[in-house]
Amino acid sequence: MGAQALSVFAFVFLAEWSISSAAFSQALDSDFTFTLPAGRKECFYQTMKKDASLEIEYQVLDGAGLDVDFVLFSPSGDILATDHRKSDGIHTVETQDGDYMFCFDNSFSSVSEKIIFFELILDNMEDGMEGDPEDWREYVQGTDLLDMKLEDILESINSVKARLGKSVQIQTILRAFEARDRNLQESNYERVNLWSATNLVVMVLVSSVQVYMLRSLFDDRRKTRT
Q: Could you say which residues form the signal peptide (predicted)?
């Protein structure tokens, strides 16, 4: 694995909890789907800066019970949010400088593994963006060929960018909901087929026994002498 891949996902395994950790790149929006084995706990790290915002949304897509434990830690180790055996959740925190850790725990289940989807939304993480409009304004000022101000153009572009980002986020969440509902329906379909087949076999056996019992009642076993 190269240095760039290691900077994106860095897994650390601990013997007691069997914990793995990962560090995401500084992206505004990222999502990840992984399999959490039974009896395991998996943690991820996200580096944040001061006065930014971290939003974490997760869903259990597949697995018995569709539930998992979740906990979010601050860089100092304080618990910021926790969920106990929930199928989905969303948490938003104002951040400080440091690494935030969030963990998914499936140690309460000894048999069923879980497929978990989560999405990270990072706000106010861009650096050096505020000076760009001033640089562009130096080229625009002093010309009479443009009727629209640069501020209006930038505002329109930022508005379109924000709406597109929100659309992508909503579509990602809807895909996760659709995947979870599909897995649930397929599981119910298999259960219905299993119990229907079981009921059919039982009905055939009961009918056969009833027919045999009725025939035995009217069967004349006396021998006729000639």
A: 1-22
